[in-house]
Write a structure and sequence with these properties.
The protein has three helices and four strands. It is α+β, with helices and mostly antiparallel strands. It has a single domain (2-97), classed as Alpha-Beta Plaits (2-Layer Sandwich). It holds the Pfam family EthD.
């Protein structure tokens, strides 16, 4: 499993961000080929301090190659090009292989 994690700092207009993200951006992003699961939240909390992020998006792919192919696809390129339309605070994009654990 490989995860794509997108962190969004505080935007200039939080209401515009929420509306645009849900009605316009997510429908683009979830069209990426190879996407197995996705989730997002606007309710970011931090222990002890104010959270440095306004929103988060997580996407699961089978492996790094599937994630790269999805992001480089026409659908992934459209989603990436759409980010400046709502993320006025910028964006931090991370990806990593998921290490499973058991107790």
């Amino acid at each position: 499993m490989h995860k794509l994690l997108v962190l969004y700092p505080q935007p200039a207009d939080p209401d515009h961000f929420r509306d645009y993200y849900v009605t316009k951006h997510l429908p683009l992003a979830i069209q990426m080929p190879g996407l197995l699961a996705w989730r997002y939240s606007f309710d970011i909390a931090a222990t002890g301090d104010e959270a440095p992020y306004f929103a988060v998006f997580e996407a699961d792919f089978a492996d790094a190659a599937a994630m790269t192919a999805g992001r480089e696809s026409p659908e992934g390129q459209r989603a990436g090009a759409d980010v400046p339309n709502y993320a006025t605070g910028g964006v931090v994009i991370l990806n990593y292989p998921v290490q499973d654990g058991t107790r």
